Input
Amino acid sequence: MRIKNLFSWKSWAMVLTLCFTGIQGVTAQKGPKWLEKAIFYQIYPSSYMDSDGNGIGDLPGITSKLDYIKSLGVNALWLNPVFESGWFDGGYDVIDFYKVDPRFGTNTDLVTLLKEAHKRGIKVCLDLVAGHTSDKCLWFKESAQADANLQYSDYYIWTNNIPKSEQELIAKRKASPNPQSNTIGRYVEANAPRAKYYEKNFFECQPALNYGFVNPDPKHPWEQPVSAPGPQAMRRELKNIMTFWMDKGVDGFRVDMASSLVKNDPDKKETTKLWNGMRAWMNEQFPECVLISEWSNPKQAIPAGFHIDFMIHFGIPGYPSLFFAKDTPWGKYENSYDYCYFDKAGKGSLKQFVENYGDAFRATKNLGYIALPTANHDYQRPNVGGRNTFDQLKVAMTFFFTMPGVPFLYYGDEVGMKYQMNLPSKEGSNERAGTRTPMQWSNDADAGFSTCAPDKLYLPVDTENGKLTVAAQENDPSSLLNYVRRLINLRQSSEALGNDGDWQLISEVNKPYPMVYKRSAGGETYIVALNPSGKAVAASFPTLGGKAVELVMGDKKQGKYRQGKTTDKIELKGVSALIFKLK
Ligand code: NOJ
Output
C-alpha cells in the first residue's frame, strides 16, 4: 500500500503540481476510488463482542463478527480508539499510540482483524486522537520534569502564568460536583516540577499536544510558533504513528478534534496548513488511505485535506434540528428550534438543515464527502424518546442511506437499539453511556454479547424482550435489519443514489412535510419522499417530466406519485418513506 518508489515520474509530477497549485492540485481529487462506494460501520470496541467472557468487547470478538458485518452491505469500519488508554474518556485518553490496549487484545489481534476484514473486502480505519494524550502517557510524564530539554519536553504546553479569567475557570471546575469531567477552561493546575499549569484539550486528564501557536504573544513565552522544534517534532511523531499503523494495513483514520491542533487559530489557517501537509504526504505515500475529520465544518475541513467530514451534533447547525427532540438528552443543548423534524408531531422545520447542508454540499461536492451518521458514541441513537417504532426508524434510515456523501451506520442502529436513558457514567461517558451499550445479538443472557454474569457487563443491555436483536430480525423480511440491508443494496446499485450523485430538495423548504428530494447522476433520477409525521401529507413540484415512475422501495399502500402536465404531486400517509425511480 505504501508507495515505495519516491523517484517515479508520478511523484515528481505530484511535487510539480503541488509547487504550482498548492494543495488545491491534490485535493482536486476526491481521494481513492473506493470512497465512491464506501459505506462505513462504526464500532465502539468495548461494546461489540466479548470473546473472553470478561464483560468487555475485544478485537477477536469483532473479527468473529465480520461475516455479519459484511452481510449488512457495508464495506468499511471505523473503530473508536483501540490504543492503550487510561480509560477516563472511553479510550480518548491515550497512553501509548503504538500499542493496542490489553482489554482489546494485542497488536497481532489487530493485524489479524485487518487481514480478515480485507479478505472480505472491508476497509478498516482507526481513531487518531491527534490533539492530546492521557496524563499517564510517558511523553507527558517526561515533559512534566524540571529539565525542559528532554526528548518530549516540548510535546506539551507548560506555563506558570495564566490570565485571571482562566484561574477563575479552574476554581469553577474544582467547585463543580464532577471536576474531572468538566471540560470548561483551557488550563489545568498541576504544580509539576516543570511549571504550575499545562494546557488541556478536553478533560483535565487530556493535556494538549503542542503543534504551536499562531502569532505567538511575546508576553507569553510558552506560545511557540508552529515552526519551532517542538511543534515540528510533534508533526513528525503524528506521521510516525500513522505510518506505523498504515504499514500494518490500516486504511485510514478518523481524526479526533481535527480542528483543535494549532492554538490561537480562529480562522484555522495554520491548522489547514498542517492538514494540507498531511494529505499531500498521504497522497504520496499511502494514496489508498483516507482521512476523516471530526471537525463538523466541511467547508473548512475538506479544503484542509480531509476526504470526509461529519455533520453531527456540533459545528455547522442542522443535524440536531432534524433528530434531537427537546425532551431527549441532546435536545436540551440546542435552543434554535422547538420541535425536531423526525418526530411524529410533524412540527419540525427543514430550513436550518437544508440551508447549511445545501451550502456545504455545493461548496465541497467536487472535493470530498459529507457524512451524516445515524448516530455516534457521543450522542443519542435514532431510537430515543417518542421515536421508538420500527416504522419511524425506517423513515430515518431512508434519509441516512439516500443522502449523498459517505454513510456511517453506528453499530446496533440497524436493529433499532435504543439510547438507554439515565445510565450512570462509565469511563468519562457522562450521558454518552446510553449510546455505548453492548451490541444486541440474541435473546440469550447478555444479549449474546458476552458470557459474563449480567452485573459484569460493560453497560447493560435492553432488547425489549428480544425484539431489538439481530437474531429476532435476521430472518424476518419486514424487519428493520433487512430494511437497512435493502436500502444499502439499492444505494450501491445506482450511481444517482450513491455517494457522488447530485442532491436537490424539490419540495418547498417552508412546507417541510413531506421532504422530497431528487438524487441524480449519469442520466438517472431517483425521488425520495419522507414523512416522519403522523399525518397524511402531500407535496407538489414542477413536473420532472419522466415517462413513467417506478416505486423501488417502500409500501405502495403508503403513498402515490401523481404525474401532471406542469406539476407532479406526491401523497404520503403518516410515518412513511418511498423511493421512486424516474424512467
Ligand atoms: C471527541 C470524541 O468523539 C469524544 O468521545 C471525546 O470525548 C473527545 N473528542 C475528546 O477526545
